Amino acid sequence: MEKRNLYLHTTPVEEAKERYYRAVKECISIRTEEIPVDRSLGRVTAEAVYARLCSPLFNASAMDGIAVEAKKTRGASEEHPLVLRRGEDFQVVDTGDPIREPYDAVIMAEDLLEIDEDTVQIMAAVAPWNHIRPIGEDIVAGEMLLPGHHRIRPVDIGVLLGGGILQVRVHASPSVGIIPTGTEMIPPGQEPEDGQIIDSNSGMFAALVQQYGGEPDRFPIIHDDYEKIRETVKEAVSRDDLVIVNAGSSAGTEDYTVHVLRELGEVLIHGVAIKPGKPVILAIVDHKPVIGLPGYPVSAYIDFETFVKPVIELFTGSSLKARPLEQAVISKRLVSSLKHKEYVRVKVGEVNGRLVASPLARGAAAATSLVKADGVCIIDQNLEGYEAGEQVQVELWRPKDEIRHTIVSVGSHDLIMDFLADLLPDLFPGVHLSSTHVGSMAGLMALKRGEAHIAPTHLLDEETGVYNIAYLKRIFPDREMALIKGVSRIQGLMVKKGNPKGIRGVEDLPGCRYANRQRGAGTRVLLDHLLKQAGIRPEQIEGYELEAATHMAAAALVKDGGVDAAMGIYAAAKAMDLSFIEVGEEEYDFAIERKNLELPFIQDFIQALQSEQFKSRVKEAGGYGTENAGKIILI
Ligand SMILES: Nc1nc2c(c(=O)[nH]1)N[C@H]1C(S)=C(S)[C@@H](COP(=O)(O)OP(=O)(O)OC[C@H]3O[C@@H](n4cnc5c(N)ncnc54)[C@H](O)[C@@H]3O)O[C@H]1N2
Ligand code: MOO
What we know:
Elements: H1 13-27, E1 32-36, E2 49-50, E3 60-61, E4 65-68, E5 82-85, E6 90-93, E7 105-108, E8 112-116, E9 119-122, E10 132-133, E11 144-146, H2 154-162, E12 167-171, E13 175-180, E14 185-186, E15 197-198, H3 201-211, E16 215-218, H4 226-239, E17 242-246, H5 257-264, E18 266-270, E19 274-275, E20 281-285, E21 288-293, H6 297-316, E22 325-330, E23 334-335, E24 341-351, E25 354-359, H7 367-372, E26 375-379, E27 385-386, E28 391-396, H8 400-404, E29 406-411, H9 415-427, E30 432-437, H10 440-448, E31 454-457, H11 469-475, E32 481-495, E33 514-517, H12 522-534, E34 547-548, H13 551-560, E35 565-569, H14 570-575, E36 579-593, H15 600-610, H16 612-621, E37 624-625, E38 632-634
Parallel strand pairs: 13-16, 13-17, 14-15, 17-21, 19-24, 22-25, 29-30, 33-34, 33-35
Antiparallel strand pairs: 1-12, 2-11, 3-10, 4-6, 4-7, 5-9, 8-9, 18-20, 20-21, 22-28, 23-27, 24-25, 24-26, 26-28, 31-36, 32-35, 32-36, 32-37, 32-38
Helix pairs in contact: 1-6, 3-6, 4-5, 9-15, 9-16
Bound molecules: ligand LQZAQKY5 and molybdate ion.
Ligand LQZAQKY5 binds at residues 180, 182, 185, 197, 199-202, 246-252, 255, 276, 278-279, 294-297, 299, 364-365.
């Protein structure tokens, strides 16, 4: 067997950061540069900036009116108005005009009685400096306008220009080398062949670097070849301030990064007690920080935020605002190990006045969990997790105001949830739909615990043959509930195109490879019902234990995953270009507490269901009926 980097020891996150930053600070040199003020937005001052000019530059009129000598207005009153003559006693001025000797006060046009073009009457005396902005009232030449380490905002640009400053010295944007490695990697745009993986991380890193004020310097993909990786790292270190080497960070036989970095420089840390992101490498080569990030996108992102961002901030001279921490109730039990600090991506919604966090997929390769997340629940290394319903700290990634206007849906999955999520903010600006797919039963349980506004459900009551209502009565015996009617949809068996196995119905499933849905999913309840009717036991079906989380995930397993059949909706089969054997029609509705029907965004949701846009979109997908969409049944 080839050599592996088996490492059993990991360093706690804070210790790793502290040791690395101490070393980095000692070795890097911070560059600064002078740039035009009007292109300095977001940059950080390298030194204090002092005004070159005063503002205003001269004594200036603050109002439209006339400039006078204050002493000549003495004695004027309502009873004894005073007559003033142009040229002799006053000069007409506009706001901003210079006021020169002998004038020392301004009277507003509204306070004048015009007798003729050259004569006015005043009814009150004025004091010197009345309505005059003196030289340097706002800015005095030589005064400090901005301190060092200040991130420049639009208002700062205004003040600098007003103070006569055209160039400003700022921290230079660090150039960040990005080196993707891996023989199996291909650049985006190239059609992947078997076993190839699109290098999506480099694009994400480049965007992060830009967002945090650096300049990305991207290298082409380097194959798993020790010499090539070494030469590329040397090149990057010679031209960049900071270098990221992506993947090859862990224990694989072709994970060369750490060996290359050990040869070229010093590896301070390999392996941190963080999940995801454990195999991160923190090194220094030729006085430059070099960070090896793991290949899995979520690990790479979490490590970037934790270890790369603070290094970029050292170069840019200022820390970016940390994301706010909020208390939330966690909706599912979260078990975590004492071996690491864990970052669990969560969806967050406000239900009945409290924030509720629902954990998303925890896998390090689940990049879409980063896209769906409203935040992250951080479980400290010394904690073994949280029980459902416990208070947790969540770092919010989305503005709280937006979270407040989000409908939280937990339950069964259907493609219409995607249509609605897309349609809602279009029809009702500011309203969002967040849906978590856990199956019908688990959704109703979440609704019961007050963790969702709505629970999409399709549960067949075997006795009555009626969908959903019986379950609501049973699960919420003493609560006033309602059902917002959704769609009727065709359920069936999704099979490979052309149905090569000649499957006609559930009776043909024994002998085929099947993919099931998770326990409590309505689709699984339907399968069990049909199996019972057909007198087939679950053990007779190969793959009964294989659980797909959504219709689309089940369809994907049939398409490419070595599975012959899975139960699902027509629209998913159509979207994946599969053949479809209809087994029946069912009703997909939304359970809700009656008191929540009046919430403004729930009213918007009901209207969206009734909208023409929704109906035509659903019709296009096929296999749905929308006659009852948006109707309310009180239970
Ligand atoms: N025996 C062990 N195996 C693994 C361990 C371990 O401790 N012992 N650690 C696991 C952990 S944790 C992680 S995280 C990964 C890290 O893997 P590597 O950094 O070595 O990355 P690769 O194996 O080269 O790639 C893994 C995977 O990542 C994706 N990837 C890679 N590069 C990119 C890219 N540029 N863009 C998008 N995605 C990328 C891809 O799916 C690769 O298959 O190791 C575990 N293994
Ligand atoms: O560190 Mo790995 O990122 O846990 O999957």
